[in-house]
Each structure stands twice: as C-alpha cells, then as structure tokens.
Amino acid sequence: MDRIVECVPNFSEGRNHATVQAILDAVTSTPDVVYLDHSMDPDHHRAVLTFCGTPEAVVVAAFRAIRTATNLIDLRSHTGVHPRVGATDVVPFIPIKGTTMDDCIQLAKRLGEEVGRELRIPVFLYEQAASRTDRIHLEAVRRGGLEGLAFRMSSDPHWAPDFGPSRLHRSAGAIVIGARPPLIAYNVNLRSQSMEIARSIAKTVRQSNGGLLHVKAIGVELASRGMVQVSMNLTDYQVTPVQSAFQAVKTEAEKHGISVAGSEFIGLLPQAALDNAAVTSLQLERFDLSHILERRIAETVEAKNTSDQTLLDFLSAVSDTKPIPAGGSVAALVGALAAALGVMGARLAKQSDGETTLLRLSRRLYELVQEDACAYEALMEAYKIPKEHSDRPGTVSNALLKATEIPLEVAERACEVARILHGLRQVVKPTVYSDLTVGMILAIATAEAGLFTARTNVKHSTNQLVMESAQAKIIKTRESLEELRRLC
After folding, report:
1. In which element (H, E) is residue 125 found?
2. Among 139, 159, 179, where does a domain finish?
3. Can 372 be counted among the known catalytic residues?
4. Do 111 and 11 share a structural domain?
C-alpha cells in the first residue's frame, strides 16, 4: 500500500466476545483493510480496535464497524468505569504513510456525515478535525457523560452536533470522530483498592491540573483484579515520554505508601516511544514486540498482500501442467509457514531474539519461493539453447549453479528454523508445544526437499569446482538434518 491511514475506534463493550467479534468481522471483511490489534477490558467495559488501510477503505470499514456496534450495543444497560458518550465512543484517524493530517480531517468529516445521515447518530468532530475550539479535546465532549452532553445539546446552540440529529440516539448515544497524531494509551496498576488515592495521583500527573505536558489521566477501579489504576493518554510522547509518565505515577504512589503492580499499553505504540531498556523499567505486563505499531503494520500488510494477491494464484500455478513453480517453491513456502508458527510461539514465550530471527527466516524463505521459480525457469531456457552455440555450456553451468544454490539455501534456512523451534518447545506452554512440533516437522520436511533438489541438480553439473562446493554444503546440511530428526 502506498497510502496508509490508521484507525483506532473505541467501543463501549468489553465483556461480550461475540459482539466484539462481530465488529471485528465487519472490519476484516472490508477489502484493502488490514486488522492490526484489538483489546477488551471488562472493568473499563471497553474494546479498542486498531486497523489500517487505504484512506477510502478505512472509512468504509469504520462505518461498517459503527453500524454493527449500533445494532448490538445498548448504552441504556451499559456499566463501566471508562468515560463514554457512545456505543461507538470515539473514532480517530491517524496518518501513517503517504497521507497527511489534512487527509485524515477530510476522512473524519466524510465518515461523520455518513454516520449522521445513515445511522441518525449525532457526531462531534474533535482534535485536528474539530469545528470549534471548545471541542478539540475529547474530555470536553465527554464532560458530564451522556447526561451532560444531552443537556448541552438541548440548552446551548453552540453544542449542536457537526452532523446528524440534535438529540442523542436512544441506544447508541453520540459519536466523537476526529484526526490526530499517534496517541499512546498507557495504564499503571497500583497495589491498592483506594479510588481516592488513584484519583489523587491522576489529578497530580495530568496536564490540566498542572502536571505533565500532553498527559491525560483518570483513576479507575479494576474490580476484577482487586486494585486501582491510573489510566493515561499520552498525546505527545516526544514531549512527555512513557518513562516519565510511569515514574511520575510511581513517585506519587510511593508518597501514599503504595507500590506499582505493573503497567500496560492498550493497542499499539510507535517504535520511537519505547526502547529495550524501557520494557523492564516500566514493569510491563503482557508485552511483546508485536505491540510496536510500525512492526505490526509491516508484517500484516505484507501478509495480506501475500494472501490477497499471490496465494490463490500460486496454488493454481502449482496445479497447472507447467513445471514452474514446482517442488522447490512449494518447499520454500512450507518452510516460511513453519517459521511463522515459530514467531507465534516466540511471542507467547516472550523470546524476542527468537522472534526476530524467525521473522527474518520466514521472510527469506518466502523470497526463495519466487527465486527458486526464476532459477528453474532460467535453467529451462538455458537448455533450449542449441548445442552448437558456443555460449551454451557456460549458460547452462551458471543456471545449474543457481538452481543448486537456492534449494540448498532453502534446506539450510529450514534447518535453522527447526533448531530454533526445538529450543522454543522447551519454554512454551503445553497448548503451544504441539504447534511448534508441527512447525518443526514442516521445517525438517522442507530441508529434506531442498537437499533432494540440490543433489538432483548438482549431478548434472560439469563444473568440478561447483560440484565440490555444493557437495560440501550438502554433507554439512545433511548432518544437521539428521541431528534434528533425532530431536524431533
């Protein structure tokens, strides 16, 4: 995708998985949209969904999600600690690649107009898209909750919505839609049940009360966990880094004789907002590198492009009577899938080094799918050169070399994958062990297939140096493979 916009809608539902899944389905069924992340919290009674895509597709997906939420969520029976004014509470657009803030402002207005017209829900624009200065901040629209907003709408002409009817929707309330830079939703959990202390700490650290710049904070109760939380939004992490917000809350908590139980991110965050040292210093809970926004976008966009544009075509091509792509390409793809299983296991086991290595191996094996097809095609073309042509022997020899080196690399990379998967099996939970074993079996099969192809091709080479070099690699890889078979 050359132009990417991120959207992070918040829904007033954190307990009913079927409802949240229906909203997810509305988004993921939209062409040119990539799902990135979602979270649910029963205490906040809130779900946060993150997706990206082309500007046009993101608006379509957002509208579908809002329509689904409107049909399934009734605020009249909603209870939760997080402030809210709508079943779909807030929908921000964030420019990511090839797009500007002005583009996102126009998207917010387009979505707001459609929601107001089609769903009859009042829409208020906020942040960069706000039509009035007193609506820039989300908390200004939420002030007093649904009752406060309803009162302002009925008594103050300045609080007429930007789009839609002048009264709240009976079950869905209102919606706040806007455009903003990346925001970090960050919570610090305290070993206390005192809401008075949580509110006091939140008041001290937030900007509106003279605290940290670009920090919004509230104190909330986590009844299901028997503790309280300082829930924050960091609207400019470059001015106030995550570490500064954490330290401020920790310092205030210590003044009350309370310790920090841990902290957590909701949704994704930019790479620049976190370094390796911060993972430990922030006492992060349930965190892995997949929470990094840029990493998640790159991986999921690449995966979607592969799925949408090439997988079905690849299967059809393999099924065809043509010999390209064939065994080597299929083996490389299987190896890439085996490595992807390992990435999943590494993330669950919080093995960042293993995750990084397996991601690299998965991508390289996927590249080898196409490289093998190209090498075999080049070999077939070389064989078509008439035997009397003087350049035929050299062309065939070079093509054979490539057609041998690529499956050899497939075998070598697959052995690396299998070895890492074996190590991960020792540290993952039993529920994941079987998945990693499947990955290891597939990686070993990939290595065997790669070796078979390499041995077959090297037999046809007349270049003694090429044959000796390839044979040495084949022997080394075969020894490694035999060891892995024993481990499996």
Report:
1. strand 123-127
2. 179
3. yes
4. yes
Catalytic residue among 32, 74, 78, 82: 82
Q: What is the DSSP string of 158-217?
A: GG--SBS-SS-BTTTB-EEEEE-S--EEEEEEES---HHHHHHHHHHHSGGGT-STTEEE
Does residue 333 sit in the same domain as residue 265? no
**Pair 204, 276: CB distance under 8 Å:** no
Domain total in the chain: 3
Whole-number Å distance between alpha carbons of 349 and 429:
8
Q: Where residue 88 sits, what CATH number does that domain have?
A: 3.30.990.10
Rounded Cα distance, 443 and 413, in Å: 9
Average pLDDT over residues 169-180: 96
Collect all residues with Cβ–Cβ distance below 8 Å to 425 and sequence separation of at least 6: 345, 433, 436, 437, 440
The b-or-e profile of 94-132 (16+ CB within 10 A means b, else e) is: bbbeebebebbbbbbbbbbebbbeebebbbbbbbbbbee
Catalytic, out of 37, 89, 162, 372: 372
Overall average pLDDT of the 138-165 stretch = 94
In tens, the pLDDT along 411-431 reads 999 999 999 999 999 998 888
How far apart CA 341 and CA 355 sit, in angstroms, is 10
**Structure tokens, 204:** 């001290």
Query: Does residue 82 carry a catalytic annotation?
Result: yes
Helix/strand/coil for 67: helix
The answer on 250 and 331 residing in a single domain is no
